[in-house]
């Protein structure tokens, strides 16, 4: 293999890994109130919906609030896409007794995980 090609591929791998690390760090750097401060007006509509979720709710009750899940509807963690490219999604974590946790991740911007009443 050509040495130049190996160098270019290596630099590409390093750059990709670096972008992943930066994106990961930015996502988890903004939580709680910092996450809310980064939300757009459109995202705050979802924030209001999340605020109405309660611990122990069934999937059908959560669907009444968020609509049908975009993926993993039959699993323990269905997800709703907040944008079209999939970089922002809301995951609901279910146990046999119902909803236990909600986590909203917007990759590179914020992670929001409210306390469920």
- CA distance, first residue to last residue: 59 Å
What composes the largest sheet?
4 strands, antiparallel
* Count of the domains: 1
Give average pLDDT, whole number. Answer: 80
Determine the CATH topology: Beta-lactamase Inhibitory Protein, Chain:B, domain 1
Which structural class best describes the helix and strand composition? alpha+beta
Radius of gyration computed on alpha carbons? 18 Å
Shape: globular
* Low-confidence region ranges: 17-26
Instruction: Give helix and strand order, one letter per element, not per position.
Output: HHHHEEEE
- The neighbouring-strand order within the major sheet is 1-2-3-4
Provide the CATH top-level class: Alpha Beta
Query: Helical segment tally?
Result: 4
Strand content bin = 15-25%
Subunit organisation of the chains: single chain
């Amino acid at each position: 293999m050509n040495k130049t090609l190996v160098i270019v591929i290596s630099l590409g791998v390093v750059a990709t890994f670096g972008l992943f690390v930066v994106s990961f760090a930015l996502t988890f750097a903004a939580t709680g109130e910092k996450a809310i401060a980064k939300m757009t007006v459109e995202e705050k509509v979802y924030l209001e919906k999340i605020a109405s979720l309660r611990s122990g709710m069934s999937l059908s009750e959560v669907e009444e609030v968020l609509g049908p899940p975009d993926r993993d509807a039959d699993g323990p963690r269905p997800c709703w896409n907040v944008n079209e490219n999939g970089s922002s999604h809301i995951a609901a974590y279910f146990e046999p007794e119902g909803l236990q946790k909600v986590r909203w991740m917007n990759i590179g911007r914020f992670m929001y995980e409210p306390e469920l009443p």
